[in-house]
Specification:
The protein has a nine-stranded parallel beta sheet. The chain has helices spanning 3-14, 30-42, 62-73, 78-89, 103-109, 111-121, 137-144, 160-169, 190-201, 217-224, 234-242, 246-266, and strands spanning 18-24, 47-51, 97-101, 125-128, 149-151, 153-154, 174-177, 208-211, 229-232. Residues 181-185 have low confidence and may be disordered. The chain contains twelve helices and nine strands. The protein is an alpha/beta fold.
């Protein structure tokens, strides 16, 4: 059993909902990445998503696009992202880390070399935004050999038959994209999310996490009532990137993560 399975079993057994937090590796500086991961874990994040900077992040809104641009200027690559996970693992062997990004850098590195690098670094899961599940078998097979979950995305427009396919193809958890559009959008409809998550849960035992458009502790609590975990990204990226000094940024991200977790626990 890997860290993701252990974490979701713990949450399920305690009747608690999870908090998944996202930042981009190397934003606003490479030196900020590991301390930010540490602060989010210490503040209650159950799973850490770490974005791999990419030149054409088509699924991401303005905030995460800008964070990716800043990270690329800082020279951050897929290898350097994995290096940050390895550094984080020296002090935290418990909190799962999921890489989120695009297929292109992985293909450039090679599937086998990437899987070995990710495994040795302490990565637990992988979300590839632009990888259709019909083309995922080779990567999935490589990842399974090193006990890394391939986490698949479900959109609001995904039909039930396709959801069944995704539920049997993915592992770790299913990621429901709560809105039609990019990350950070502002038209979250909780009642619609509730209906969709209920339909997903009828065909899978995998945990269902919901992300995109969740920016406040209040919104996180509302989604936590209907999902197994809540994903918050753009708001944390903005918090981390807007501070004038690293010390202030870390204090802010710790406080915001704590507020998110308190709201989720209270829902």
């Amino acid at each position: 059993m890997n860290r993701l399975a252990t974490t979701f079993n713990r949450l399920r057994n305690s009747g608690e909902k999870g908090l998944i937090t996202f930042i981009t590796a190397g934003d606003p500086t490479l030196a900020a990445t590991v301390p930010a991961l540490r602060h989010m874990a210490d503040a209650g994040a159950d799973v850490l998503e770490l974005g791999v900077p990419f030149t054409d992040p088509e699924a991401d809104g303005a905030s995460i696009q800008r964070s990716s641009e800043r990270a690329l200027v800082n020279g951050v690559t897929l290898r350097k992202t994995c290096e940050q996970v390895a550094i984080f693992r020296r002090e935290n062997e418990v909190t799962p880390v999921v890489l989120m990004g695009y297929l292109n850098p992985i293909l450039a590195l090679g599937l086998e070399p990437f899987a070995q690098l990710a495994s040795q670094s302490g990565v637990d899961g992988l979300i590839i935004v632009n990888l259709p599940p019909e083309e995922a078998d080779e990567l999935k097979s490589v990842l399974e050999r090193v006990n890394i979950d391939l986490i698949l995305l479900i959109a609001p427009t995904t039909p039930l038959e396709r959801i069944k396919t995704l539920a049997t193809s993915g592992s770790g958890f299913l990621y429901y994209v709560s809105i039609k559009g990019t990350t950070g959008a502002d038209h979250l409809d909780v009642s619609d999310v509730e209906r969709k998550v209920a339909s997903i849960k009828k065909v899978t035992d995998l945990p269902v996490s919901v992300g995109f458009g969740i920016k406040t502790p209040e919104a996180a609590a509302a989604i936590a009532k209907v999902a197994d975990a809540v994903v918050v990204g753009s708001a944390l990226v903005e918090t981390l990137g807007s501070a004038t000094a690293l010390e202030h940024a870390l204090t802010d991200i710790h406080g915001f993560t704590s507020a998110l977790k308190r709201s989720i626990r209270a829902c």
